Structure formats: structure tokens, C-alpha cells
Amino acid sequence: MLLACIVLTIQLPEQPVSVEKLVRLPAFPSGTVQTGLAIALAWSLAGIVSIILPTQLIQYGLPNWSGLMLFIFVTSGVLVQPLARRLNSRRSLQLGYGLLILGYLIFTIGAGLGILRLVLIGVAIAGTACYGFTYLGGIAEVIRLSGTQSARVVSGYFVCAYLGFGLPVIFIGFISDQFGTINALFGYGVMFLIANLALGQYQGFKTKQRT
């Protein structure tokens, strides 16, 4: 049996050696970095809603609402995806910037005042951008700009997304230990607002150039 296996192995045709790399790193062609920043900002809210806000709800004696809050956040994004697919990618991104700012402002005020209704409304609005307009608009935009390397460019897009999910939460957690959760949320909110407004202006400028 062993001898037969050796003979069969020797008779196998030689396989061609691939000259391509087995591991391909994410790529960021011109124009995709801004879209990566957009999804990073959007998914930073996913991290905040998943980790930071539940701790704030516990302080108000509302720990059982954390699950519903996450459900609303994700579901609202899924529900608007059919509409997001019909929009131009840059229009979808621009709409996402506004919704992210509005949602963040509402749920942060709600968390600060202990008003659960505002928190739920805010996370619902933010979710429409995080998993709807910004998410799908961003994917469509990077694919449009990717040329022949769409897999690497989409990979780069998700690298930005997951960095956005994790790094701001670490930053807010550190600041929260020093100044409190609400102060940390408002402090991050200032940077979040400036970044979204800047990206929104940039996308508006690029959209006008295309038309």
C-alpha cells in the first residue's frame, strides 16, 4: 500500500508555481481614505452604544434596557438599507453625516439627563447611518474607486471600520475614569462633530465636481 502511494505521488503532474502573493494587504487608493474615516466615525458610535451607554444606563437603574437599545440600533440600520441602496453613494454618505451628528447629540443628552426615551430615539437615528446610509454608501464608493483591486480596497474599508469601533471606546473609557462618562461623551462629541462636518463638506464639494 505504501509503495503504491509513492508511485501515484511520483506520477502526479507538477503544479504551476503562482507568482502572486498569497497574502494581500488592504489597499487605500486615492479618494478612499475619506470614506474609511467616515465608516470609522460611524462605527465609533457602535462601540459607544455597545459598551459605554450600557454602563450609563446601569447608573440610572436601567440595566435591562441595554439589550433593547442595541436591538434598536442595529435594526434601524437594517430597515433603511433598501433606501440606502437606491441612493448615489456620495449622497448616502452625506445623509449619514447628518444623521450621525443628530443621533449622537440626542442620545448623549438623553444619557446625561437620564431620559431613556431620548437615548432610544438617538440610537435609532444613529443606527440608520451606522448600518445603513454610511455603511452601504461607503462600500459602494470604495468599490467605485477600487478599479481591479476591489477585494483589497474593501478590506481596507473594514480595517477603518473596526479601528473606529475599538479605539474611541478606549479613549472615552480612559477619559471617563478622569472626568466622568457624560463629560467624556460630550468631549468626544466635539471632535465627532468637527470631523463629520469636515467630511460632509468635502463630500459635497466632490459631488458638485462630478455634476
UniProtKB/TrEMBL annotation:
Gene3D superfamilies: MFS general substrate transporter like domains. InterPro entries: MFS_trans_sf (IPR036259). It comes from the Bacteria. Keywords: Membrane, Transmembrane, Transmembrane helix. The keyword Nucleus does not apply. The chain crosses the membrane at residues 35-53, 65-84, 104-133, 154-175, 181-200. The keyword Transmembrane helix applies. This is Major facilitator superfamily (MFS) profile domain-containing protein.
